[in-house]
């Protein structure tokens, strides 16, 4: 799978460990930066990651910052992105199965490396369940869809 990974300065070392884990599993990983622990603004890297996923350059995104919160908000500003902040594998799997998440966020200061690897593994091996979740996911990128239009299209 083609995966983009990006962080802020607080997660540079965390990113390096997760990047190597992903590569060891055979994934093609694009590191969108930063390369050093010099202070940067997480929205810049969240936006880069979101664009890479939205453009189809990669299939999935991994967003990292100190807490995972700020960068997940930045990624989710893009209407084609569904980035879930996760801290354990069940949430990572459910983000894929129920929400068709195409990116996850993790907090380097809150999640240990082994737990983060387990989250990545769950995220990357779980398929979207579709079915009743499909119309709900459609609404995430199209807020103008109402319950009525969803019910009409399902009929």
UniProtKB/TrEMBL annotation:
Region (Disordered): 133-155
InterPro entries with a match to the protein in the record: RpiB, RpiB_LacA_LacB, RpiB_LacA_LacB_sf
EC number: 5.3.1.6
Coiled-coil features, chain-numbered ranges: none
Top EC class for this record: isomerase
Keywords: Isomerase
Keyword Isomerase: yes
Stretches with biased composition (Polar residues): 141-155
Source species, domain of life: Bacteria
GO MF, any single term: ribose-5-phosphate isomerase activity
Keyword Acyltransferase listed: no
Family: Belongs to the LacAB/RpiB family.
Protein known as: Ribose 5-phosphate isomerase B
Lineage, opening ranks: Bacteria, Pseudomonadati, Pseudomonadota, Alphaproteobacteria, Sphingomonadales
Name of the encoding gene: rpiB
């Amino acid at each position: 799978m083609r995966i983009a990974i990006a962080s802020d300065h607080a997660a540079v070392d965390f990113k390096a460990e997760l990047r190597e884990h992903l590569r060891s599993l055979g994934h093609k990983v694009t590191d969108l930066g930063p390369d050093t622990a010099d202070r940067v603004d997480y929205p810049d890297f969240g936006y880069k990651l979101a664009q890479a996923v939205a453009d189809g350059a990669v299939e999935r995104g991994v967003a990292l910052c100190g807490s995972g919160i700020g960068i997940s908000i930045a990624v989710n500003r893009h209407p084609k992105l569904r980035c879930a902040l996760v801290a354990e594998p069940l949430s990572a799997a459910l983000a894929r199965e129920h929400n068709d998440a195409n990116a996850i966020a993790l907090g380097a200061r809150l999640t240990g490396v082994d737990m983060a690897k387990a989250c990545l593994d769950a995220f990357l091996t779980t398929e979207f369940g579709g079915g009743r979740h499909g119309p709900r996911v459609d609404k995430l990128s199209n807020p103008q869809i109402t319950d009525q239009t969803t019910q009409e299209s399902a009929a």
